[in-house]
Write a structure and sequence with these properties.
mainly alpha; about 280 residues; 15 helices; elongated
Amino acid sequence: MKRLLMEAQTDYYAYYRAYKFIMNSGNSEILLSYAHLDEIAEVKDVNTYVRPRLIFGLDCVTLSRKELDELNFFHKSQLKILQNLPERTDDAAIYILSGQMPIEACLHRQILVNFGNIVRNNDIEKEICIRQLVMKDNTSHSWFIYVNDILSLYEFESIFDILNSIPNRESWKNYVKKRIETFWRQKITNMAEGKSTLRFLHPMSMNCETVHNVWANTGLDSISIMKANVKARLLTGVYTLQSNRSRFNKYEVSAICPLCMDEIEDTENFLLKCTSTDSDLF
């Protein structure tokens, strides 16, 4: 693994090989906690090599809701492992920190881009599309009905309007990307709002394809990465403090800060009030 990580400094394919090695080792969470990979490079590696392999060919078939949920679950699990966050971390926090959308969104974007490529020319494929839309109902497994459902989900204009005036390739691709990113950014923000554990995360700051500042401003040395991981856990509400231990143990354990012994150890006390906490630690 050390050899692969050294090669990865100049070769992103080595990142993928290192990723596969770690994932197949059976001890991925432990190894990743000591690997100290650059989070930005990890996300770039996932976007460049892992995600395309994960959804390869799926843009040509119709997937059920159950199949999409399984795909999303696997993708979320990988993002949690890469960020060294526990399984209980909120889904919205995972996407905000990594700057990623659910894999479902990436698949939908690819489907709509392919749809534009198929119907852009007045060929037999466009005629088949129109015939399928006219003859089939919403219970059909027709791919074009599936596309119509996706267009409705993201509140695009009518599919027949799109067929009458399909934009050029680049314009359509950018339009699809913007609509899907806007939809999921709003949905993830809504998922995060109102959750007390994410009150410090500021979900409105999410930027798709850009990692959160807690990772973007992290150095490559092990100490900086450990600090960033503590910050990420505090932001997502999964860093175990004394108040959490007390609640988990039915208040048989004291919630008082074991360092200053003055107040209940919650996030505010841990970061701002505890006189025993070194302010330079974070």
